[in-house]
Amino acid sequence: MWRGISLKGTACLLQVGASKFLHIRHFPSQCLRFLSQGVLSRPPELSSILRPQSPDFYLSHRVIRNYKKDTQSTLDIPLNPITVTEIKQYLRSKDIPFHDGYSCLHIASIFINPSTRKNNFSLFIDKTTGRFLCKDTLVEGSWEDLQDCLEVMQKDEQEFLRPNVLLGYSESIEEQEERGRELKEVQAIWSSSVPFTDLPEDEAQLVKAMFQMTKISNATIKKFGVRLFKPTKSLVLPWFGGPDSSLKGIKLLSAQMTDTDKVIYNEATVPKCSSYYNLFGLALVSCSDSEVVVTGCELDTLAVTQATGVPSVALPRGVSCLPPVLLPYLEQFKRVTLWLGGDIRSWEASKIFSRKLGLRRCSLVRPGEFHPCPLEALSRGCNLSHIMKASIPAAHKSIVSFKQLREDVYGELVNTDQVAGVKWTRFPELNRILKGHRKGELTVFTGPTGSGKTTFISELALDLCMQGINTLWGSFEINNVRLAKIMLTQFAMQRLEENLERYDFWADKFEELPLYFMTFHGQQNIKTVLDTMQHAVYMYDINHVVIDNLQFMMGHENLSVDKFAVQDLIIGAFRKFATNSSCHITLIIHPRKEEDDRELQTASIFGSAKASQEADNVLILQEKKVVTCPGRRSLQVTKNRFDGDVGIFPLDFIKTSLTFSTPMKGKHKLKKLTGKSETGEDDQGKVAPSKKDEGKKEKAMKKATVKTPPSENETNKK
Ligand SMILES: Nc1ncnc2c1ncn2[C@@H]1O[C@H](COP(=O)(O)OP(=O)(O)OP(=O)(O)O)[C@@H](O)[C@H]1O
Questions:
Q1: Dist. CA 718–CA 716, nearest whole Å
Q2: Which among 192, 318, 640, 682 is placed 20 to 30 Å from 344, CA to CA?
Q3: For residues 144 and 430, which has the higher predicted lDDT (pLDDT)?
Q4: Which atom from ligand 1 is nearest to the alpha carbon of 655?
Q5: Rounded distance from Cα 523 to ligand 1 centre (Å)
Q6: What single-letter DSSP state applies at residue 120?
Q7: Checking DSSP bridges between strand 234-241 and strand 227-229, what pairing results, if any?
Q8: Is the CB of 477 under 6 A from ligand 1?
């Protein structure tokens, strides 16, 4: 006989041992019937849930969910976005005392026997998402999971629950095997690497020179446990974590000198970077420390600690993201200085991260000539404590004077190139007109039906994503599998149907991209979409959201009211989101009307002038319908708020790789002269590239694609 407790919705908790529970999220309704009678004798339906493992399997393996949830790349719709007020109300209703922290609420862990609790309040509830983490047992889960646990405790009048109560998602055999392999790899690399202090002095100096860290002392390197892996001449940066401070992973950092004497750092992590959640340096922080400096890389952390004595931690993926799962570890600090690097990207990231950390305790080191990244500051002989003292409080005032703005203005003037945004590697012509892709802007994109809007934007966004721009796709028209297939083809620059043996190679690389998909399909409510975007920005530091397309948010029922008024409202909502979240939104819109022989213009999209004002950039995929060049597409920029430049350039479509390229001038001319049959157009009137051009581009792109995103595996520091 199994006793069960019915929880919210279709979830339930089965008691299958004296203190063993099995948490099942989607319990078949037939079984719930048994539960409502209070007792469940193992019904046949249950075997289908538990297959292929026996319940004992689930119970004997504590589910290690701690470091794997972010491997998901599809975003579920947050069904009930929770607010901090609701969380507090709930806790009060259960008489649970809490401490109101910076990013989390802290409560006593419910997974530790009260008589043996060392720390009070070691369970952290994220104020934005409701997710929780118990730092003592590393049990974590959603807000719903926590509520379930609390309900069970109350119903059963228990003082605490065993940590293995949340057994909902067991790892598959493959996942376990992979984790086992990773752990072995970590151990193997760690044990075959040499502690820095065991190296002969001349070799140690050579390595330090290679990494431009000659000013970092051996004592500092030893303190952080850094080793050298001789076969690849990489620094081994350990990840110690958990209540027993055991070795959980490693980062291998290698350095390469470029022709221009810059050092390029390449990094690889085990476990792979999507599950690598190490705040490097955390193991050295004591629980009484109240101040910390957060840096964008491990060597910066060494520099800060050595030069100032202030505890410092490095973010696992540099400036690209601050995963919320790390926030509980930063709750103890009353003052957090964000010194993420010496460029504009680090500055922008520090402003965004300070919102997650709680503005009032954060101060930001503004990059500039005299404020390079910490390692460089140390090697230049700067006073790092002075730089930190000059950091700016993150909490901004609503009214500022020019005195407060002058440094920002100066920063923009000396870094014009960085301010112009991230450049596309595949679309130089777009760089020429738009100058780059910038945070906080709204790009509206249109083109005739079936002209290739999705295909084009997919490549445009992929290009940025490959450069470390965290991207979220909302594809309402075509499903995520089809979209991912298009992107993967564009990424690999080849038809994978014909090269299936290459699939895993490309898929492995593609998986490393910071790319997420909303799980919506068909008509959606704009509020739900915005909530999901908000959630994604918080969880994954999304910098670019692509919405394909606006028509899927218009709703059928509104067709009788002014359609364009609804459209304007939606555009306004996206505009506001882009500004408030410092996130770029690319919004695909079907044109208002299509007149066969006329090219589209800004007015073809918008209902009113107000809406066109909201967009920072307006891009139109023009389709030439004239006889000489049927099927030829051009990209026209009709609005560019950044510097006003507008223009148009032709695009050739390469069918095998689903990519677009700017035709070479000579070839372009030839096409106009020779007409359809010799232009290389295919039987559908679509332009195919010459073999030579395709080969060339493919070669160039492969070079670019084999490279993993710079923010993930490569940090160009100087
Ligand atoms: N420049 C092009 N020339 C020829 N075919 C193209 C071109 N661009 C895309 N295609 C192909 O046309 C088809 C439709 O492309 P896509 O879905 O990107 O168009 P769309 O404009 O987004 O369509 P819709 O208006 O339905 O949203 C796809 O099979 C794609 O491979």
A1: 6
A2: 640
A3: 430
A4: 31
A5: 21
A6: S
A7: antiparallel
A8: yes
Atom of ligand 1 nearest to the CA of 653: 1
Give the dihedral of Cα atoms 489, 492, 497, 498; nearest 10 deg: 140
pLDDT-derived band at 383 (thresholds 50, 70, 90) equals very high
Whether 485 lines ligand 1, by a CB cut-off of 6 Å, is no
- Residue 336's closest CA among 388, 384, 288, 286? 388
Query: Which token pair is 216?
Result: 């970092």
Report DSSP letters for 1-17, one per residue. -EEEEE-STT-EEEE-S
Residue 165 has a pLDDT of 60
pTM: 0.74
Q: Report the C-alpha gap between 79 and 461 in whole angstroms.
A: 27
- Dist. CA 236–CA 185, nearest whole Å: 13
Nearest Cα residue to atom 4 of ligand 1: 686
Give the span between the Cα atoms of 596 and 611, in whole angstroms: 25
Domains and CATH numbers, the chain: 1-60 (no CATH), 68-171 (no CATH), 193-414 (3.40.1360.10), 428-651 (3.40.50.300)
Q: Give SS3 for 325.
A: helix
**CA dist 313 to 239, 280, 357, Å?**
11, 5, 14
Q: Strand, coil or helix: what is 474?
A: strand
Which tokens in the block code for residue 133? 């983490």
Number of neighbouring beta carbons within 10 Å of residue 454: 21
pLDDT tens profile 488-500: 999 999 988 888 8
**Pocket-testing residue among 451, 485, 662, ligand 1, by greatest number of atoms within 8 A of Cβ:** 451
Which of 449, 454, 550 has the most ligand 1 atoms within 8 A of CB, as the residue to mutate? 454
Ligand 1 pocket member 633 (CB < 6 A): yes
